[in-house]
Amino acid sequence: MELRKAHFPGSAPIDAYGNGGFRFADMSHRGSLLFLPSGIHGWDAREDSPLTVDLFAPLLDEEPGKIEVLLIGTGREMRFIPQDVRSALREKGIVCDPMNTGAAVRTYNILLAESRAVAAALIAI
After folding, report:
1. Whole-angstrom Cα distance, residue 37 to residue 107?
2. Owning domain of residue 118
3. Do the domain assignments include residue 35?
4. H or E segment at 104?
5. Would 8 be classed as within a structural domain?
6. Coiled coil located at which positions (predicted)?
7. Through-space distance between the first and last CA atoms of the chain, rounded to whole angstroms
8. What is the pTM for the complete model shown?
């Protein structure tokens, strides 16, 4: 898994989602995104792709302690996260919370505004 160059070097609230992408920080992106402490990055996940440890590798490479909660927007419907992915995240001290992408966007914005150690892995819808 290759991490794409950051679209934005830091955290930013999500202004809109839908039509296959996201708007944030006066920019737009088509496709899925990772909102990490190191920046906002393109992500190769799709609604029909399996959720694997490799897919979450960029999160696992973040500096320890920078992420406490990972919101996983799984698309239009909530999907369960495989146990091996949960275990890999837990080993890094990250609790994951899967939900549909809309709920993940709203929750991310709230936790970000509260200055919480939050990240989001959002599958575009």
Report:
1. 16
2. 17-122
3. yes
4. helix 101-113
5. no
6. none
7. 22
8. 0.92
Please, which residues bridge with residue 17 across strands? 22
Structure tokens at 111: 């936790």
Residues 41 and 7 sit within 8 Å (Cβ to Cβ):
yes
CA 115, 121, 125 angle in degrees (round to 5)?
120
Summarised one tens digit per residue, pLDDT across range 47-84 is 999 999 999 999 999 998 999 999 999 999 999 999 99
The two tokens of residue 21 are: 């992408």
Within-domain flag for 6: no
Kindly give the pairing relationship between strand 69-73 and strand 27-30. Answer: unpaired
CB-side neighbour CA atoms (13 Å) of 49: 14
Question: 74 in a domain, yes or no?
Answer: yes
Q: What phi and psi, each to the nearest 5 degrees, are found at residue 119?
A: -135, 160
